[in-house]
Amino acid sequence: MLAALSGGVDSSVAAARAVAAGHEVTGVHLALSRTRDALRSGSRGCCSREDAADAARVADVLGIPYYVWDLSEEFAEDVVADFVASYAAGQTPNPCLRCNEKIKFAAVLDRALALGFDAVCTGHYAQLAGGVLRRAVDAGKDQSYVLSVLRPDQLAHALFPVGDTVKSSIRDEAAALGLRVAAKPDSHDICFIPDGDTRGFLTARLGAQPGPIVDVSGEELGRHEGVHGFTIGQRKGIGVDRPAADGRPRYVLGIEPVSGTVTVGPRAALSVRTISARRPIWCSGAPDGPFAATVQVRAHGGTAPAEIVLVEDGVTVTLAEPLEGVAPGQAVAFYRPDPSGDVVLGSATITAAS
């Protein structure tokens, strides 16, 4: 079995549990960044020299072979370039979804199977048994949403050993094993933007592309330097000095990349009842007709019961109750409620909402 060691506490304990379960484990650190010489800054960044050294120390403590795989070119093309292109198109992508789909459970899994490994083990917070993917026990750490892009053949060769345990217990377990990463801060934000300045990162790659900021009546309220600086539902940093007529905050309601127009308005206008999405991926086989499910439209939060209908190259989701801040480019994940942990049915990429 191949254990992906990020240098963090979750993947370290996942590898330790795989060893304890009797698997023959080899550790691998994925070098995804092209600027790995920079040191990690608290909870920001990834793939630094510090992370690689932490992963190596974990492998040494566990007594398993350890290697570094350089996948920086694949990551730059399939995750970073996709992220930039999506924002340029007025969308809000989730790079963790794309990384799981294209890197960890495509490039890495394919290479692992070719080398004779039977599975890839990661520190994701999700439960997997008998090919059924479920939410993690720790609801606050659940990562099943970003794993909803995995197909049955990929899940058949995956292992998520920490999904049945709350995070605080994982840290205690790491400390008991003598792993120095037990108290290491969790990574936050986007791993390849270590300073957290997403707008600056995108502007450096896309340049300034000025356009108008308008309200729902079409009145121009200001100017911006590029639609890549905005996401649906955004309230802060819009760049409009004048308050709304009712004195309440304005939110980003729409992004039109061709004209460069950003439309803002009241929070009530964010509510949607219908979602269109393309490129569905089914975790346990495609449904044969319309079905009911709970949907989730963001990595954390944004859930509602819904009816899902299959259409050509996609799905139409009719919500039983409205959701706010549904952004094209994000995924809509489908869950079947279950007392043992909601079952992940699949996901699709949001194209529109109304």
From TrEMBL:
It holds the Pfam family tRNA_Me_trans_M. It catalyses: S-sulfanyl-L-cysteinyl-[protein] + uridine(34) in tRNA + AH2 + ATP = 2-thiouridine(34) in tRNA + L-cysteinyl-[protein] + A + AMP + diphosphate + H(+). This is tRNA-specific 2-thiouridylase MnmA. It comes from Pseudonocardia ailaonensis. The active site is at residues 99, 191. ATP binds at residues 4-11, 30, 123. The keyword tRNA processing applies. Its EC number is 2.8.1.13. Residues 141-143 are annotated as: Interaction with tRNA. Residues 200-265 form the tRNA-specific 2-thiouridylase MnmA-like central domain. It is found in: Cytoplasm. InterPro entries: MnmA-like, MnmA-like_C, MnmA-like_central, MnmA-like_central_sf, Rossmann-like_a/b/a_fold. Keywords: ATP-binding, Cytoplasm, Disulfide bond, Nucleotide-binding, RNA-binding, Transferase, tRNA processing, tRNA-binding. SUPFAM superfamilies: Adenine nucleotide alpha hydrolases-like (SSF52402). The keyword tRNA-binding applies. Belongs to the MnmA/TRMU family. The lineage of its organism: Bacteria, Bacillati, Actinomycetota, Actinomycetes, Pseudonocardiales. Residues 273-350 form the tRNA-specific 2-thiouridylase MnmA-like C-terminal domain. It comes from the Bacteria. The record marks 124, 330 as: Interaction with tRNA. The gene is mnmA. Catalyzes the 2-thiolation of uridine at the wobble position (U34) of tRNA, leading to the formation of s(2)U34.
